[in-house]
Amino acid sequence: MNPLWFAVPLIVGAMTPVVLQMSAQMADRIGDMESAIILHIVGTVAGLAWWILGLRGAGVQHVSEVPWWAWLAGVIGVSSLAAVNRALPETGVGAFVGVSLAAQLTMALWMDKAGWLGAEIRPIGWTHLLGVGCLILGGVLVTR
Fold this sequence. Notes:
The structure is a single chain. The chain is mainly alpha-helical and about 140 residues long. The chain has 2 domains: about 1-90, no CATH class; about 90-144, no CATH class. It has helices spanning about 5-30, 30-50, 70-90, 95-115, 125-140. The termini are far apart.
């Protein structure tokens, strides 16, 4: 694998707290769910623009091949953003991201180990567990 692909999670990771705070600011003015819906509409328009410009995959003609449970990603996405909008002002950006990162890595490693939702099965070693432990400890420390 080309190491440049690791730039993607670095950029996405760096932008996540920025996006969360932007969304929380919108939610403060118009409401938690309203903000989540509007931001998903804006994201859809941006996605359509990228699609029109040629950033595409296999095509929507394969939509019938999508597993039923994959459609729940949209429900989870908009619901999660509304929950972020409500929780972020209470927790602060740092604590929210610290705890959510620990939860994300814990779930990701479990998914890799179990092959859940079609993930490629990968073994989990002591270094993975140590990394999760450090993130959990970091999540606890940033909430104090």
